Amino acid sequence: MAYITARKRAEGLGPAHNGTHHAWSMIISSISLLILIPLFIAVVVPAIGAEYSTVASYFARPYPAVITGLTISVGMYHFKEGAHVMITDYSTGSWRAVLIIINACLSYAIIAIALFALVRLQNSSGIHI
Amino acid sequence: MKHKPRPLSPHLQIYKPQITSVTSILHRITGNALLVPVVLLVWWLWSIASGQASFNLVNSILTSWIGDLIMLCGLWGLWYHFLAGLRHVYWLTTGQGLAVHTAERFGYAIIIGTCVLTGLTLILF
Known about the structure:
Low-confidence stretches of chain A: none
Distance between the termini of chain B: 56 Å
Strand content of chain B: under 5%
Number of strands of chain A: 0
Low-confidence stretches of chain B: none
Mean pLDDT of chain A: 92
Order of helices and strands of chain B: HHHHH
Largest sheet of chain B: none
Radius of gyration of chain A: 21 Å
Mean pLDDT of chain B: 95
Number of helices of chain A: 5
Strand content of chain A: under 5%
Number of helices of chain B: 5
Order of helices and strands of chain A: HHHHH
Oligomer: heterodimer
Largest sheet of chain A: none
Number of strands of chain B: 0
Structural class of chain B: mainly alpha
């Protein structure tokens, strides 16, 4: 007979070997977005609707580019985790598996496309802030 | 192994919507629906990197009434999710504020705060 304390029984990663990983990663990404989202709004909202040469040179600058890139990356990771929870709540079986896979692919594809676009827009002529 | 669906007790059809349940589902809805404005935004960034021609197409969509609507709803949804998320983080990290009347007050504050922040954003930027 295993003499095990209540605390020892509760310790560990649980049957999926995941522990509190999801909850903790959501807290971390939420706090990051707490800082990033206001900055992102300040950066992006004024640029919407502006003409081509304005926006092209705007996103070549470091602060708009880094803030936009970071927010989309952290934000889409946060989205992926949140959508995953919703998918597992509402679907079962094959549908669930397919949706989870599509969710992951879509989230990372959006990050990749955004980062590529931002890198493409950088000037090679040095730093002009 | 499919069988005829068993009858279920009514739930969504009969339960009175309350500020607690409504703010909760709205948090999920806004979080996931934000995918739409994000895709539009990333398409916009991609079009800038692709050149004037593709930019003009995306920009015309973005500045059309549909684009304006998507962006406005997206802004409201973003601030809503932001404030409701703050409430979640508060709950998770402190374990406080979980009493029903406290959660209800937070709920009203979130909805009012979202409208205020959305308005402020539109005025300031």
